[in-house]
Amino acid sequence: MLSAAFTAIPRPRVQRVPKPHRLWRSGLGAALASVIALATPPPAHADTAGTACVESGDTLYLDGHRAHGRCHGGEPVVLYGIDAPEIEQICSHKGQPWPCGRRSASALLQMTLRHTVVCQGNSRDRQNRLIAICHADGVELNRAMVEIGLAVSAGTRYARQEGEARAAHRGMWMGTFDRPADWRASH
User: Fold this and answer.
1) pTM, to two decimals
2) What is the pLDDT averaged over residues 128-151?
3) Parallel, antiparallel, or unpaired: how do β-strands 130-136 and 75-79 relate?
4) SS3 helix, strand, coil % of the chain, rounded to 5?
5) DSSP per residue over 62-117, as a string?
6) In 3D, which of 141, 165, 135, 168 has the Cα closest to residue 152?
7) Which domains does the chain have, with CATH numbers?
């Protein structure tokens, strides 16, 4: 008699979770994989090369093009270990202002003009730009920009070159200037 009372109680319904292989068959798994793939940023390229569209003294676009005063398309690249003045930044030499930001970009343009630029990097910044060491015509652009005094070292990699440029009064070091990071913070 006791067993009859237990059989009369309805059993709770248990919802089954689909097995993974059934998810793929239904297309739900493929849709989920697509969403994950789209949400994941692309990996940084180890090597990239092309013609340069120079945005500033430390930023260029490989295989980009200039329109309305800015670079568009292509692979955006930030030169690793350096910080160059912004295009609008003005420096001073013997009390006279000079456009160090424009000169910095112009120097990078001259080094890359009519040359294939090869960049090697393995990380990206918050704006998804490749952070890389770049070469053109056998010249390491990062190092050269600091050596001529039109960029400062951001970290220790090019600290020696910055010291040499400062001692020789090259580029921005021939007068006074705000370090690019300080200038950006105040503008």
Assistant:
1) 0.76
2) 98
3) parallel
4) 35, 30, 35
5) ET-EEETTEEESSEEEEETTEEPPPTT--EEETTEEE-HHHHHHHHHHHHHTTS-E
6) 165
7) 47-186 (2.40.50.90)
